[in-house]
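Quick question: what would this complex look like in 3D?
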Amino acid sequence: MTAELSAILAANQEFYEAFAKGDLARMDRVWAQRAPVVCIHPGWGALTERAGIMQSWRNILGEGGAGIRAVGPRVFRYGALALVVLQEMLPGGMLMATNGFVQEDGGWRMVLHQAGPLSAIAEEPPSPARN
Amino acid sequence: MTAELSAILAANQEFYEAFAKGDLARMDRVWAQRAPVVCIHPGWGALTERAGIMQSWRNILGEGGAGIRAVGPRVFRYGALALVVLQEMLPGGMLMATNGFVQEDGGWRMVLHQAGPLSAIAEEPPSPARN
């Protein structure tokens, strides 16, 4: 594994540790300060202001850390942006998530988080239901 | 609106027209040929092989075009990659979607599509439910 890939995965893991531990200050450091940011929690509309995103985490983490765990992260590069695609295991079920990171101040910072319910573990179910 | 922003929004719109019309050939042209691709249909795991993504669209579009409409697309740039965040209106409900595009062969091609159920139209619901 390259050093860069390790650093991207570490940034992704840092997000889940902040989440699991309910550590808002740590969550704040995970997110980019200057790049545009987008956060889509399951069932929510898109939050696109950094302050609103942090408020959402304040609400979510205020309920205490969650038993969340990232499974099978895979990294895809598009120039400056790295996407990490993975499953989130929670006590209440599984989510499919995409996280985006860019480099700021020498580290990888989150610019995108979208998570939605995963109805089956299968990667390619035979008959898709779109709506 | 800049010419580049127009081109990104046009590529995004082309995706929804291919989808709405059930036009698989057009859908195939929407997706990047060489860049890594990721597609997460609602409830599904991540498809990360182009052939598997096209097979999923063959299944979905084989049921005929869908009454799908993109509402309120917003564009966010990260170097080579453009994200378009929007709501998808379907007969069965609303979805929140993130689409990613990069330039290939002089045009913007899709590299990311993730859609998940939207439980409320509100952008910032007061009390999030994460799991």
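Answer marked as accepted. The two ends of chain A are 39 Å apart (CA to CA).
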